[in-house]
């Protein structure tokens, strides 16, 4: 966040199993508040190329499917704490491993 009233925009799949990541909950646990969510339309982003981002095929694209853009801001009404990025990363990794176990990769 570059400005005190800056925003974080996250594009994420919203179909099963990706909806189980529950981004608004994870953000809320880290003093962020979801203030808007809109369907992601790839045609609004000429030249957009998605990437897997992990593993031996990390540079490969994947089927986009149903996605949304989530808009977050800092929640100043709550007591701000240091964001524990390592804990958040560990929680996401645990969720990912559970989903891979259930649905396969």
UniProtKB/TrEMBL annotation:
One of its GO terms (biological process) is rRNA base methylation. GO terms for cellular component: cytoplasm. One of its GO terms (molecular function) is rRNA (uridine-N3-)-methyltransferase activity. Pfam families: BMT5-like. It comes from the Eukaryota. Residues 1-52 form the 25S rRNA (uridine-N(3))-methyltransferase BMT5-like domain. InterPro entries: BMT5-like (IPR019446). PANTHER family: FERREDOXIN-FOLD ANTICODON-BINDING DOMAIN-CONTAINING PROTEIN 1, PHENYLALANYL-TRNA SYNTHETASE. This is 25S rRNA (uridine-N(3))-methyltransferase BMT5-like domain-containing protein. It comes from Dendrobium nobile (Orchid).
